[in-house]
C-alpha cells in the first residue's frame, strides 16, 4: 500500500472510529418512545420533604388511575437540573415532565428559547388557573422575552414558599423576652440578646441568607410598584432610593450592633440552620423550606412570626412542573400535574409542612402546619409576595453574595454596595 | 557473533521489491497501532471539545438557542475585566501554594525521611510517615474541603476552639470569611493537599541515587546540608522539574477546593480563573464569555507546559 493510500486509510479509520466513539457517547432514545405507556418524570425534592412525600403519593395515584402505564422516576439534584437543563432539553433525552426553577433567568430563558411547552390550553381546560392565586402564578407565566408575570403559562407550581422569622420560644422565655410584633420590639429583643452575649440572628454570608435580610429590610420601605420595577422591569429601579438605602444602611448597622455576626461572611445556610436547631441562635429569618426540617429536628419549643412592620416579604410560587417541548408523552404529563393539584395530594403536602396552593384548610390537622398556611393565605391576600432579590438578572445571586459579604466585613460601605449591585443589574437587565 | 533480527520481518511483515513502499520497517511502526485508541480518545475528548469551545468563545450565546457571532468581542471584554485579572492574580498565589511551597517542603521532608528517619527508625516508620503525608492526595477534594470548612468555621470551628483552649483566644479568626485572610487560608489548605505528591516522587528519586556518593561525602566530612545541596538536589533534578511543572499546571486549573471552601468569596477574594469561568457559564449563562475565559486558560496552561518541557529538555541535555 502506498504511503498516501495508507494515510488515507488511516484517516478514514480514525474518522470512522471517532464517529463510533462519539455515537457511543450520544444519547439513547430515552425510553419514553411516545407510546403512551411510560411517563418519564424528574424532580429534585428529598423523599422526606413535604413535596417529596406528596409527589410520591401522586406517583402511586397516577399508577392506580393509569393501569398499564409505568412511571420512570429519576431523582435529580437541584444543582444538577439547574446547570444541565438547557442541554438536556435541547437533546432527545428530555423527560416528559420535570421540576424546574422559576424566574426570568431559568424557566423564562428556556421558554424564550422554545424549549418548554406552552401549557396555557391545559391550564384553562383543567382549571388550574382557578386554583392558583395571582401572587403565586406570577412565576408561571412568561412573555416572549422570557420575563415573568404575563404571557403564556410555561409552568405550574403546586406549592408556595415565603419567608418568616423562626424563633426559639424557650430561649426567649429564658431571657424574659416576648414575641416581637413591631420592628421596635424586634430590635429591643435583639438588644437584650446582645447584652446577654448571644448573637440574635443566625446568618449565612456565603449563601442566600444575608442578601435576603437586606432585601427584607428594603421591602419594609417599599411597595408593589417598587417590586415590579425591580423584578419585572415595569419601571426604573433606583438603587439609591429610600428603600434600598434603608436596607443597606440598616443591615450594616445591624452588623455593627452585633445583631448579625461579623464572622458570618463565610458561613453557609446549612450552618445557620444548624445553629438554630442546636438552640444557639434565637432567631433565623428564612423560608418555609426550613419548616419540615425544624419540625423534625428542633428539640425545643419554637414558633414563627412574619417580619414585623411590613406588607411585603420574600416569597413566590414554588418550583414549577414544566413539560419539555421535546417530551414524548405530554398527555400523561398533564394528567400527572392534574393529580398533584388534586385536593388529596394538596392536603397531604400541607399536612407535611409544605405550603399548598389548593388545599382544603379544614383538612389540615397539624397546628403548626395550619398556622403556616394561614400566615401564607394572609400574605397572599394582601399581595405580599415580593419574590427574591437575585431573580432579575442572570448571575445576580453571585453578585449579591459577594457584595453583601463585603458589607459585612466592612470592605465596602452601604453606598458602595448599592453602586456595585446597581451596576451589575443595569448591565444585564433587559432594556424596556 | 552478533545476530540482528529485523523487527518487521519478525512481525511477519511482507517484503516487496522496489519503490517507496519497500523501505525497511522502522522499529516504531509496529507500535503505532497501539497508540491509535489513545489518539482517538484524545481527539474525541480533548481536541474536538477544545476546538468547539474556542468556536463558542467567538459568539454571544446563553447556552440555548442559536449562538450569535460576535468576533473578538468576548476577548476584548476579557482584557478589560478586572475580575478576570484578579482571578489570575489569585492563580499566582495558588502556584506558590501548590507548586513552590510543596516542592521546597517536599524536598526537605523527603531528604529528612530518607536520610534521618530511614536510618534511625527503619523503613516501616518511613513508609507510614510517607503514607500520612500522601493521604490528602487520596482524599476527594470535596470531602477534604468540607472537613476543612468545619475545622476553619469562625464559630465552633475546631481550630478556633483549640486556640481558645490553649489560651490563644486572641488569635481566633474568621479564616475563610475575612477577605484579607481567606486566600492565605485556602493556600494553607492547598499546601496540605499537595505536599504528599512531591514527597513521594522525591523519595522515589532518592532511591536511585548511588549511596556511594553520600558515603564519600560523609568521609570527606560534608554535613547534611552540604550533602543535600551538592548531591541530593542535583541528582533528583529531573524529578524536581516534573513535580514543578505538574503542580504549576494543577495550580492554574484549581477549582474543587475553591468551590467547596469559599465559592470564590468573600467578595471575590479567592476567585480563580476556572471558578470564574464556571460561574460565567452556569450562573450568568454567558456561555460565549465563559468559553473565552477557559480558552485563554487552556492556552496559558499549554504554553506553560511546553515552556516547562523545553526547559527540562535543555537542562537534562
From TrEMBL, chain A:
Pfam families to which the protein is assigned, alphabetical: SBP_bac_1
Cited InterPro entries: Bact_solute-bd_prot1, SBP
Protein known as: Extracellular solute-binding protein
Species this protein is from: Streptomyces akebiae
TrEMBL record, chain B:
Residue ranges of domain ABC transmembrane type-1 in the record: 88-308
Membrane topology label: Multi-pass membrane protein
SUPFAM superfamilies: MetI-like
Gene3D superfamilies: MetI-like (1.10.3720.10)
PROSITE patterns the UniProt entry points to: ABC_TM1
Annotated localization: Cell membrane
Keywords assigned: Cell membrane, Membrane, Transmembrane, Transmembrane helix, Transport
Sequence ranges of Basic residues compositional bias: 13-24
Coiled coil location: none
Transmembrane annotation, as ranges: 31-52, 92-116, 128-151, 181-204, 242-261, 287-309
Region (Disordered), start-end ranges: 1-24
InterPro entries hit by this protein: ABC_transporter_permease, MetI-like, MetI-like_sf
Pfam families named in the record: BPD_transp_1
Family according to the record: Belongs to the binding-protein-dependent transport system permease family.
Name of the molecule in the record: Sugar ABC transporter permease
Species of the source: Streptomyces akebiae
Amino acid at each position: 500500500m502506498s504511503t498516501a493510500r495508507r494515510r488515507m486509510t488511516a484517516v478514514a479509520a480514525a474518522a470512522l472510529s471517532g464517529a463510533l466513539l462519539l455515537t457511543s457517547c450520544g444519547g439513547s432514545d430515552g425510553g419514553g418512545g411516545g407510546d403512551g405507556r411510560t411517563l418519564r418524570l424528574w424532580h429534585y425534592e428529598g423523599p422526606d420533604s413535604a413535596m417529596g412525600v406528596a409527589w410520591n403519593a401522586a406517583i402511586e395515584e397516577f399508577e392506580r388511575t393509569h393501569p398499564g402505564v409505568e412511571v420512570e422516576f429519576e431523582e435529580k439534584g437541584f444543582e444538577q437540573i439547574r446547570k444541565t437543563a438547557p442541554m438536556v432539553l435541547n437533546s432527545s433525552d428530555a423527560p416528559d415532565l420535570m421540576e424546574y426553577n422559576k424566574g426570568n433567568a431559568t424557566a423564562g430563558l428556556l421558554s424564550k428559547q422554545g424549549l418548554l411547552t406552552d401549557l396555557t390550553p391545559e391550564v384553562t381546560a383543567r382549571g388550574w388557573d382557578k386554583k392558583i392565586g395571582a401572587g403565586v402564578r406570577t412565576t408561571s407565566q412568561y412573555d416572549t422575552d422570557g420575563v415573568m408575570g404575563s404571557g403564556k403559562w410555561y409552568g405550574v407550581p403546586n406549592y408556595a414558599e415565603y419567608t418568616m422569622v423562626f424563633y426559639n420560644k424557650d430561649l426567649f422565655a429564658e431571657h424574659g423576652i416576648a414575641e416581637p410584633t413591631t420592628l421596635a420590639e424586634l430590635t429591643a429583643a435583639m438588644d437584650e440578646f446582645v447584652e446577654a452575649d448571644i448573637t440574635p440572628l443566625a446568618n449565612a454570608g456565603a449563601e442566600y441568607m444575608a442578601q435576603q435580610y437586606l432585601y427584607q429590610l428594603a421591602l419594609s420601605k417599599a411597595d408593589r410598584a417598587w417590586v415590579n420595577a425591580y423584578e419585572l422591569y415595569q419601571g426604573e429601579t433606583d438603587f439609591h432610593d429610600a428603600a434600598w438605602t434603608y436596607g443597606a444602611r440598616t443591615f450594616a448597622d445591624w452588623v455593627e450592633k452585633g445583631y448579625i455576626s461579623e464572622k458570618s461572611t463565610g458561613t453557609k445556610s446549612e450552618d445557620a440552620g444548624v445553629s438554630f436547631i442546636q438552640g444557639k441562635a434565637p432567631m433565623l429569618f428564612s423560608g418555609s423550606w426550613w419548616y419540615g426540617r425544624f419540625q423534625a429536628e428542633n428539640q425545643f419549643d419554637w414558633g414563627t412570626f412574619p417580619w414585623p412592620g411590613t406588607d411585603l416579604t420574600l416569597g413566590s410560587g414554588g418550583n414549577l412542573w414544566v413539560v419539555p417541548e421535546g417530551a414524548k408523552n405530554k398527555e400523561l404529563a398533564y394528567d400527572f400535574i392534574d393529580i398533584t393539584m388534586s385536593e388529596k395530594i394538596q392536603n397531604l403536602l400541607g399536612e407535611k409542612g409544605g405550603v399548598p396552593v389548593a388545599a382544603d384548610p379544614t383538612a389540615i390537622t397539624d397546628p403548626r402546619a395550619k398556622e403556616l398556611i394561614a400566615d401564607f393565605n394572609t400574605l397572599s391576600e394582601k399581595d405580599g409576595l415580593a419574590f427574591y432579590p437575585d431573580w432579575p438578572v442572570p448571575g445576580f445571586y453571585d453578585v449579591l453574595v459577594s457584595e453583601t459579604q463585603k458589607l459585612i466585613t466592612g470592605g465596602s460601605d452601604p453606598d458602595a454596595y448599592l453602586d456595585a449591585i446597581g451596576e451589575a443589574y443595569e448591565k444585564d437587565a433587559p432594556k424596556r | 557473533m552478533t545476530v540482528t533480527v529485523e523487527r518487521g520481518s519478525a512481525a511477519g511483515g511482507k517484503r516487496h521489491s522496489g519503490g517507496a513502499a519497500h523501505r525497511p520497517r522502522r522499529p516504531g511502526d509496529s507500535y503505532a497501532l497501539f497508540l491509535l485508541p489513545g489518539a482517538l480518545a484524545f481527539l474525541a475528548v480533548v481536541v474536538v471539545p477544545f476546538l468547539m469551545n474556542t468556536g463558542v468563545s467567538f459568539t454571544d450565546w446563553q447556552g440555548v438557542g442559536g449562538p450569535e457571532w460576535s468576533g473578538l468581542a468576548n476577548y476584548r471584554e476579557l482584557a478589560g475585566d478586572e475580575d478576570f485579572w484578579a482571578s489570575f492574580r489569585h492563580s499566582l498565589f495558588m502556584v506558590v501554594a501548590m507548586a513552590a511551597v510543596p516542592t521546597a517542603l517536599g524536598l526537605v521532608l523527603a531528604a529528612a525521611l530518607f536520610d534521618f528517619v530511614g536510618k534511625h527508625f527503619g523503613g516501616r516508620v518511613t513508609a507510614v510517615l510517607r503514607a500520612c503525608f500522601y493521604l490528602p492526595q487520596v482524599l476527594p477534594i470535596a470531602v477534604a474541603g468540607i472537613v476543612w470548612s468545619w475545622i476553619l468555621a469562625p464559630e465552633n470551628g475546631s481550630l478556633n476552639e483549640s486556640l481558645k483552649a490553649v489560651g490563644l483566644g486572641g488569635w481566633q479568626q474568621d479564616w475563610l470569611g475575612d477577605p484579607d485572610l481567606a486566600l492565605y487560608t485556602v493556600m494553607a489548605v492547598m499546601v496540605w493537599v499537595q505536599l504528599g505528591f512531591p514527597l513521594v516522587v522525591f523519595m522515589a528519586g532518592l532511591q536511585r541515587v548511588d549511596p556511594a556518593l553520600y558515603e564519600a561525602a560523609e568521609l570527606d566530612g560534608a554535613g547534611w546540608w552540604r550533602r543535600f545541596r551538592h548531591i541530593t538536589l542535583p541528582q533528583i533534578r529531573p524529578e524536581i522539574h516534573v513535580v514543578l511543572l505538574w503542580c504549576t499546571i494543577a495550580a492554574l486549573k484549581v477549582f474543587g477546593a475553591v468551590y467547596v471552601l469559599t465559592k470564590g468569596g468573600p467578595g471575590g477574594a479567592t476567585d480563580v480563573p476556572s471558578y470564574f469561568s464556571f460561574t460565567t457559564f452556569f450562573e450568568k449563562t454567558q456561555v460565549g464569555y465563559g468559553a473565552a475565559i477557559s480558552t485563554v486558560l487552556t492556552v496559558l496552561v499549554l504554553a506553560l507546559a511546553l515552556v516547562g518541557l523545553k526547559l527540562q529538555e535543555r537542562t537534562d541535555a
